[in-house]
Structure formats: structure tokens, C-alpha cells
Design a protein that fits this description.
The protein is mainly α. The chain has helices at about 5-15, 15-40.
Length: about 60
């Protein structure tokens, strides 16, 4: 039996309300990663209006002078 199967069996033994709360952050992270992948594939990230002004980098990073 694999580790993944053992984790699934353990997860099935938990009360439903606790299992939902335990799984919720993982579901949110998966949806966020999926949204990011779809935006990158469709090219929406590059349409925000060119270069960022001032000291800020293109992705919200601060540039060191």
C-alpha cells in the first residue's frame, strides 16, 4: 500500500466537518495555482500596461539601485 493510499484512508476516518476544514487550504491553493496557470497560458499577465514606473519591478518586486 502506498503512502498516498494510507493518507486517504486516514482522511476517510476523520469527522466530516474536520476533514472539510483540513482540506480547505489545499483546495484554495489548487484553485489559485490553476488560475495562475490559465492566466499565463492566455497571456493576460503581460497586458497590464507596459513597464511599471519608479523603482518597482514588473512583478511587484523592488529593484535595488
Amino acid at each position: 500500500m502506498s503512502t498516498f493510499d494510507e493518507i486517504l484512508q486516514w482522511f476517510e476516518t476523520l469527522p466530516a466537518s474536520f476533514a472539510f476544514l483540513l482540506a480547505l487550504p489545499f483546495v484554495i491553493a489548487f484553485v489559485s495555482l490553476l488560475k495562475d496557470a490559465v492566466e499565463r497560458r492566455s497571456g493576460k499577465k503581460g497586458r497590464r500596461g507596459g513597464k511599471a514606473g519608479g523603482r518597482r519591478g514588473g512583478d511587484g518586486e523592488l529593484k535595488i539601485l
